Every structure is written in C-alpha cells, then in structure tokens.
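Tokens for chain A. Residues wanted.
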C-alpha cells in the first residue's frame, strides 16, 4: 500500500524525531513531505536543516497533511487534541497515536465523529529501520490499519495486536530497548573486568547481542534451542548461565517488564478524571 502523504508528526521529541528521520532514511519519503511540530522553535532548527517542514503551530501542519501522528507526552495529549480538533476532517485524515496509555476511545472523545484512529507503539530503533512496532485499531478502521502498517513497516517490523495489549507492548518493545541496552552495557562491563578495553568490550558485547537476536529472527528458532547449542557438559557457558540465574537475572528482567507495564497503564489520565 502506498503511504499517504504529507505526514504531520505533532510533538517531535525523541520518538517522533526518530520516526521522521527513519521515514526519510529507510522509508523513502521526502523530508519536505513531513511536517514536524514542537513548541520550542530553537529545537526545530536541525529538522529545518534536514529539509523537514517545521512549525511551532499544529493547525497548519494538520490542515496540510493526510496522516497525523500524535507524538506528545501523555500529559500534553488532551491539550493537543483540543487544539487540532477544529482542523481534523474525518474524510481527509488518519490519526495515528504513539502516546503511551491513551486509548482510542479517549482520543475519539475530542475529535470529529468518523475519523479513523489507530494506535501504534514503535521504539527508538525506528531511526535505523529496526523498530518493533505494535499496531492496534478498531474493526471498522481497515484502511487506517493498512496505512499504519505500511507506514511503520518501512522502518522495521510490525505486529497487529488487540488494543488492550498496547500497554504491555509499551513495556516489552518501547521500554525493552533500554532493558536490552542495559544488558549489553552489563556484558561489556564484565568484558572490561576480564581484560578488554572498554571500546573492545562494547563492540564485542553489541555484536554478540545482534548475533543472538539474528539467530532467533532469521532462523525462527526458540531461545532455549540456541542456548542448548552453546552449552556443553561441565562447560563454561552453563556455569555462567547458572550463576546469573542464581543471582536472579531472568527474574529481575521479568519483574522489570511487568513493573513497566503497570507504570505505562498509569501515564495518561484524561482531564475528566
């Protein structure tokens, strides 16, 4: 499916900026077909240099675009929706929200009847075309879901999920980037302790993590199957794995993901609450 343009990304922070740049570098969309907005003009300077259309006002960007991406923080969402509501036209616009915790119903309450609204949860690897983006919509939003999938498939993998799973997806995919980065950092610190320089250790740990992920994604195998290929009786790998488990490695990661999911569900509180 051809991605409708222009695209407006409202609230171009870390994830919104990563999306904008990813769509250009990996999605083949011209920068001048993407509007990015932010309240502080000085923070838009680099985007202007890169060829994006920039503005501190959301209304003009909405009017000029076909896809509207809501990329503000949860606490700013209601104010943004109130601002753009007069400029949103159901027949002309698709609204895609990447705001954590905000349901389609809560967004729809501010916008004209009939407008298609889809939720998406990418992560910052979108800038490299390696995002894991989960997408959810309502059953009537077939065209909107297709367009949203096309949008995010240009910058990584997409997975359709039920909307009630979006909070969990936030913890596993969006927060998950930080979790895996912390694991790589810890591995590199271990490498330094056993004799490598920091630059060497970071390179070795990062490439090893990439290789582990590629084994699962490209060979479609299970983690335990690949672990079994590395571990041998009385070997050093199983000795290290068992020590990590004794120290609570898996338990800590699981508990961290569950805690992030609980927190993600509390990020957006509608004004009426």
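Reply:
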């Amino acid at each position: 499916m051809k991605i409708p343009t222009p695209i407006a990304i409202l609230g171009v922070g870390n994830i919104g900026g990563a999306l904008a740049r990813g769509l250009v570098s990996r999605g083949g969309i011209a920068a001048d077909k993407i509007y990015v907005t932010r309240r502080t003009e000085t923070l838009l300077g680099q985007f202007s240099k890169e060829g994006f259309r920039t503005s501190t006002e959301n209304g003009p960007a909405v009017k000029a675009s076909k896809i509207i991406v809501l990329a503000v923080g949860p606490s700013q969402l209601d104010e943004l929706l109130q601002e753009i509501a007069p400029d949103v036209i159901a027949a002309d616009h698709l609204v895609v929200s990447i705001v954590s915790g905000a349901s389609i119903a809560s967004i729809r309450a501010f916008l004209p009847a009939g407008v298609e609204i889809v939720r998406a949860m990418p992560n910052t690897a979108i800038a490299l075309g390696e995002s894991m983006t989960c997408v959810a919509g309502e059953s009537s939003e077939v065209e909107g879901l297709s367009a949203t999938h096309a949008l995010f498939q240009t910058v990584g993998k997409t997975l359709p999920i039920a909307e009630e799973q979006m909070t969990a997806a936030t913890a596993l995919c969006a927060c998950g980037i930080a979790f895996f980065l912390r694991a790589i950092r810890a591995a590199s610190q271990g490498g330094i302790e056993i004799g490598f320089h920091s630059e060497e250790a970071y390179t070795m740990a990062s490439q090893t993590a990439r290789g582990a992920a590629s084994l699962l994604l490209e060979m479609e195998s299970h983690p335990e199957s690949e672990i079994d290929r590395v571990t041998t009786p009385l070997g050093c790998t199983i000795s290290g794995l068992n020590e990590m488990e004794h120290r609570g490695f898996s338990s800590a990661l699981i508990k961290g993901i569950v805690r992030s999911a609980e927190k993600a569900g509390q990020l957006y509180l509608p004004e009426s609450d």
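The first helix runs from residue 14 to 25. The longest strand covers residues 116-121.
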